[in-house]
Design brief:
single chain, 458 residues, alpha/beta, FAD/NAD(P)-binding domain, six-stranded mixed β-sheet, globular
Length: 458
């Protein structure tokens, strides 16, 4: 058991909870600082979450978007990484209590603490839906979803009942934000272009793909021009876009939706949740310790310099916090906050106690793919669609991947998946009984217990 309080060395100790976008950027910003850094995460990898849907649809292998956290930070001599889960934080004694996978307890002292816990799925009071409509926040989630999608076609192939075949070949995506749009587009690509020649008893082109959202438009944060282009492109791909429609019930076999036209029930064995997020429980833990409150999404309010109120030795960044200017829950926010906080800590470790300028987010734009060669992008007022938007999307995303091996591997897989190749080499079904709800639920709970607390999604 490691203890510390009285064993502190004079060198400034920084503990970073979370190895996502914000946590890694904080550590990198402290590369040249005279500090000792401990990065703690409950998985051993850094996850590039915006590309999880490509793992779920067989385009990319998990390793390309989830490099080992130790590898990411291996050249930074003032950093050590620990595989453990935070159980409690003692703000008065400045100690983080954590447990290793084998249950071994660790007490990690700090002079400065950065919590980058991210967010998980939010089912708006219906947590029981998670069993039947998993979301995508971890590698385990993506692998489960990939198994369900591909398993649906396998089960439809052997079924002799047309109604059952239709149920297996109906896919419902709840949430028409970037993740939902990207996933629906790729489901269409699979059904219409990748799989048709591989099955003998079913026509995969008859698969029904439904995209639902309670909002009146797809991609609500985007410009109207891009929203209209996205919806038309999805519909041209055969995706049924149902707006102003909210899920009221989800079970193993179906989803019930309420829209202005009334209630409608879709028989579908595969449902995907992309409709909301809930802040990491670490936000509530910090709020309780400081007497603060969290908002409806569980996010913790922070000061303009990302510190906790009246706690300039504790910072919280990323999806788990709310700010006065209500920043979006995207990777860029977490990365910029991490870089800002890292520089601030470095300055204070040198004895600079001047009041820092508040964090200011620089919006580099938003983008989303709709399918092969089709994307929308709003980059600093420049609105781009189609092939040009897709190329811009590819460039931005591949450059944010860590390591040239992962970048080149991702580019190679993207080229294979384009229209002239239609090849997806990562279609492994890794859950043995995809539609045995007990096994699927057990797999999902195991994933929730072990996956990285993600930072942000685009």
């Amino acid at each position: 058991m490691a203890t510390a309080g009285h064993d502190r060395q004079e060198r400034h100790k920084v503990v970073i909870v979370g190895g996502g976008f914000g946590g890694v950027q904080t550590a990198k910003a402290l590369r040249k600082a005279d500090v000792d850094i401990t990065v703690i995460d409950r998985t051993n990898h850094h996850l590039f979450q915006p590309l999880l849907y490509q793992v779920a649809t067989g385009i990319l292998s998990p390793g390309l978007i989830a490099p080992a956290l130790r590898r990411v930070l291996k050249t930074q001599r003032n950093v050590r990484t620990l595989l453990a889960e935070v159980g409690d934080i003692d703000l008065e004694r400045k100690i983080v209590h954590a447990a290793a996978p084998d249950g071994q307890h660790m007490d990690l002292p700090y002079d400065t603490l950065v919590v980058a816990g991210g967010a998980t799925h939010a089912y708006f009071g219906h947590d029981e839906w998670a069993e039947h409509a998993p979301g995508m926040k971890s590698i385990e989630d993506a692998r489960l979803l990939r198994s369900r999608i591909l398993g649906a076609y396998e089960l439809a192939e052997v079924s002799q009942d047309p109604a059952e075949q239709e149920a297996y070949m109906t896919f419902v995506v709840v949430g028409a934000g970037p993740t939902g749009v990207e996933l629906a587009g790729q489901l269409s690509e699979l059904a219409r272009h990748v799989l048709p020649r591989e099955y003998r008893s079913i026509d995969t082109r008859k698969a029904r793909i439904i995209l639902l959202d309670g909002a009146p438009t797809v991609l609500p944060p985007f410009a109207k021009k891009l929203q209209k282009y996205t919806q038309k492109t999805l519909e041209d791909k055969g995706v049924e876009v149902r707006l102003n429609s909210m899920a009221t019930h989800i079970d193993a076999d179906s989803i019930t939706v309420k829209s202005p036209k009334g209630e409608e029930r879709f028989v579908a064995r595969t449902k995907v949740w992309a409709a909301g997020v809930q802040a990491s429980p670490l936000a509530a833990m910090l709020a309780k310790a400081t007497g603060s409150e969290v908002d409806r999404a569980g996010r913790l309010a922070v000061d303009p310099d990302c510190s906790l109120p009246e706690r300039h030795d504790v910072y919280a960044i990323g999806d788990m916090v709310s700010t006065i200017d209500r920043l979006p829950g995207v990777a860029q926010v977490a990365m910029q906050q991490g870089a800002y906080v890292g520089k601030l800590i470095a300055s204070r470790s040198r004895g600079d106690d001047t009041t820092p300028a508040p964090f200011k987010y620089f919006d580099k734009g938003s983008m989303a793919t709709i399918g092969a060669r089709e994307a929308v992008a709003d980059a600093r007022g420049l609105k781009v669609t189609g092939w040009l938007g897709y190329m811009l999307w590819c460039y931005v995303h591949v450059m944010f991947l860590i390591g040239w091996g992962n970048r080149l591997g991702t580019l190679f897989n993207w080229v294979r998946s384009l229209r002239f190749a239609r090849n997806r080499g990562h279609r492994l079904i890794s859950v043995r009984a995809t539609y045995d709800e007990g096994i699927a639920a057990e797999h999902h709970r195991a994933g929730d217990a072990g996956h990285e607390i993600p930072e942000a999604a685009s």
